[in-house]
Amino acid sequence: MKQATFFEGVFIALIVGFISSVLLFTLSSFFPTNILIRFLISGISFAYLLYLLTRSNERVGRVSVVTIWFISMTTLWFSWPPITLFILGHLLSIWLVRSLYFYSSLISSFADLALNSISVVIAFVVASHTNSVFLTLWCFFLIQALFVMIPRSIQKSTSNTSTPFNNDDFQHSYRAAEAAVRQLSTPQ
Predict the structure, then answer these.
(1) How many domains does the chain have?
(2) Cα(60)–Cα(102) distance, rounded to whole angstroms?
(3) 129-134 contacts: CB < 8 A, separation 24 or more?
């Protein structure tokens, strides 16, 4: 399975930004803008979810993830929250998939949550200043491309001074305990 790379993420950002801006421009005369934007958000989120699943080394649970995504997004569509909550719901699904399929520690998962938070804030700032769908999505997915820089596992280092974690230390202690028991059990 091919690993995700930063440059692949930059390419995806360009493609998503371009296709979304063209679709929004061409379809805005046929559909209301708020519905069209929600369809684009759901479509982009689903396509990105499929991209993440294809780049993951984990093979278990892919059908379940897609099914749960469809159920949760259908619920989101029927509840019709404000657009910011709608976006955050899709962002949460991206974060959960990356946490499940790309990280093995809680610290890495929280680092990805921080990355998602930064990317959505930057996207909102770009959207408010430029009103450009292309620039907004490009900036969002450009920051998202940095997820490959987060290590799979981030753990605190432990020192060997307080407790013996080494297998040789255990064997040495085990032999010393056996010798002490033998000494106590032999008659003098």
Answers:
(1) 1
(2) 13
(3) 132/21, 133/17, 133/20, 133/21, 133/24, 134/17, 134/18, 134/20, 134/21
Tokens of 25: 């421009």
In terms of residue numbers, what domain contains 90? 6-149
Q: Enter the pTM of the model.
A: 0.77
Cβ neighbours of 2 (radius 10 Å):
7
Asked if the structure places residue 188 within a domain, the reply is: no
Residue 135 resides in a domain: yes
| 48: nearest Cα among 130, 126, 119 | 119
CA dist 77 and 91 (Å) reads 15
Give 59-71 pLDDT, tens digit per residue. 888 999 999 999 9
pLDDT of residue 164: 47
Give a yes or no: residue 167 inside a domain: no
With beta carbons less than 8 A apart as the criterion, state whether 158 and 165 touch: yes
Q: Which amino acid is at 98?
A: R
The dihedral of CA 68, 104, 107, 56: what is its sign? negative
Per-residue pLDDT, 58? 84
- Is 175 part of any domain? no
* Alpha-carbon gap, residue 100 to 152, rounded angstroms: 11
